[in-house]
Amino acid sequence: MVGKQHFGVNSNISEDDEIQRRVHEEINKSSSENEDANSTENQLLKRKRYHRHTAHQIQEMEAFFKDCPHPNNRQRKEISQELGMEPLQVKFWFQNKRTQMKIDRISSIAAKYVGKPFAKSDDIPSSSIPHPMDPGVAASG
């Protein structure tokens, strides 16, 4: 092809080629922008939204928890349908509730010992601590 004057500069690119190049650039540019927009949209969709359950939902699950702290799949599905929740939400609520109960039990046990003196190894006479190499330790322990 014969070169044409383009933007005041002699060019070997034809006018049609230049138009195609620009169209291609715009397609790539808008495609890239769409990918960025889709990526942002996907990130927002993937991001977990914080959700508080209603007082009614919590009250119902608490009542069920007292009778059955480990509901099976069928029970979770029924609860979720009754309360307008997803079965996974119910599953995680019960899982979190069981963990909370366990932590509460551990905390109450630990609270009984707060303020009470613990025997330190410095306070115990070394003669009362059997050494593993002493005769009779292996036989008794």
Automatic annotation (TrEMBL):
Annotated spans, Disordered = 1-53, 118-141
Please give the PROSITE patterns that the UniProt record associates with this protein. Answer: HOMEOBOX_1 (PS00027), HOMEOBOX_2 (PS50071)
Keywords attached to this entry: Coiled coil, DNA-binding, Homeobox, Nucleus, Transcription, Transcription regulation
Specify the Homeobox domain's residue ranges: 44-104
Gene Ontology, cellular component aspect: nucleus
Q: Which residues form the signal peptide?
A: none
Lineage top rank: taxon: Eukaryota
- Matching InterPro entries, A to Z? HD, HD-Zip_IV, Homeobox_CS, Homeodomain-like_sf
Keyword Metal-binding belongs to the record: no
Keyword Protease part of the UniProt annotation: no
Compartment annotation: Nucleus
Single Gene Ontology MF annotation:
DNA-binding transcription factor activity, RNA polymerase II-specific
DNA-binding segment(s): 46-105
What SUPFAM superfamilies has UniProt attached to this entry? Answer: Homeodomain-like
Biased composition of type Basic and acidic residues is found at 19-28
Similarity comment: family membership: Belongs to the HD-ZIP homeobox family. Class IV subfamily.
PANTHER family linked: HOMEOBOX-LEUCINE ZIPPER PROTEIN MERISTEM L1
User: What is the protein's given name?
Assistant: Homeobox-leucine zipper protein ROC2
Q: What organism is listed for this UniProt entry?
A: Sesamum calycinum
